[in-house]
Amino acid sequence: MTIPTELEAKILRYFHVEHWRVGTIAAQLGVHHATVDRVLSQAGLPKVERAARPSLIDPYLPFVVETLKTYPRLSASRLYAMVRERGYRGGPDHFRHLIAHVRPRPRPEAFLRLKTLPGEQAQVDWGHFGKLTIGRATRTLMAFVMVLSFSRAVFLRFFLDAQMANFLRGHVAAFEHWGGLPRVLLYDNLKSAVLERQGEAIRFHPTLLELASHYRFEPRPVAVARGNEKGRVERAIRYIRDSFFAARTFSDLADLNAQADTWCQGQAADRPCPEDRARSVRAVFEQERAHLLDLPPVPFPTDEQVAVSVGKTPYVRFDRNDYSVPHTQVRRTLTVVASLEQVRVLDGATVIATHARTFDAGAQVEDPAHVAELVARKRAARQHRGQDYLAQAVPISATLLIKAAERGEPLGSLTAALLRLLDSYGAAELTAGIEEALAREVPHQNAVRLALERRREARGLPPPTPVVLPADRRVREVVVRTPALGDYDHLHDDPPKEV
């Protein structure tokens, strides 16, 4: 710490003119005695050696020094416990202060400034940018970052996880963005690149090797605990956090990536190049572009492929959501092939279902044709479908159905009656009617209907009379004549007496 010039002059004057001791100067000026020693030594005076006072740790110092020589990273708390077992009775704070002076200091390491040729190398890494809420799902927002080491051109693309499929998509998008690729790609030891490493023996991820073979680049991991070897991409991620992501608003992931593309081609490209600050990154990249490798005619496939099992219901589960399939595919194993926009379900090489992809959680994505065919074939499926629709529109209806089932009521007719009341009165009124029926402990369709009629009459509204006429004209024009009720009077006559 730098001390003021005036304080340094006072220390020298008190020592030379007033002949004060080091401890007296430190006490009067309110500084540590080591500060006074440093000022005097910088002035060319030998350090004043003070008589060492005996300390509780003196008998244990040889043990402490020898232990730290063997285990230099041993924590002070563990070392304190060890000397306590050997009889030391001092406090932990004082002990920690004392061993700080005898702990061996690591020798600082010097690093070479790494330079690369144009088109020779790019550095790749992931950056974590918090969470993103989509419907009922909370997804991790990850930034795929690739930086050309010569020009410092930055490619940025956001994804909802750091899985292998998005790792591949980031590479392909970066290569297409630049119109080429470098000869070497430098990675940290992340699982998408390196599966296992023992010294210099490296086992790469086989999918990454397929990507490298397709584009003809060399994947190269940095040495363990050598973050300086990929400092360009780490500095680029810090630059992205401060200059792009901070205080930025966006509506969805597509909007964020559109803003990222604009930023990469604008502000990030116009900044001065760190290697030649007289030129911009854009100008240096134009020089580097001619040295990049050409792209192959066909991009590397990046769709996710997952084998899925269909249960009793005609849906496949993929990425926390359910997608419908034809009911003929139940109890089978199918293949899901998914891009960021679309989910396809394949039976062998045949596509049997196509859906728009959702990143929600617990969503049920359906093709109406799949459901309609199943409903037409199975009446039980129709009833179950009606209960699902009723539960979504009026959640309290589930409680009514449970109570009715406990009393042995037929759920099919009850569900159909509630659906008719829903169409006639609406979800809000039906909810109030069901609540009144449950309060009266009468889980029956008539109790709900009477409650709705009482609420309607209390407000002076006419009864709902939805009329659905059949499509056949002959049926619509049928005349129904009211029978004479006198024909039924004989039913009340006394039966003839037997003789």
Automatic annotation (TrEMBL):
Instruction: Provide the Integrase catalytic domain boundaries.
Output: 114-289
A Pfam cross-reference name = Mu-transpos_C_2
Question: Could you say which protein family the record assigns here?
Answer: Belongs to the transposase IS21/IS408/IS1162 family.
Please identify the protein, giving its name as recorded. Answer: Transposase
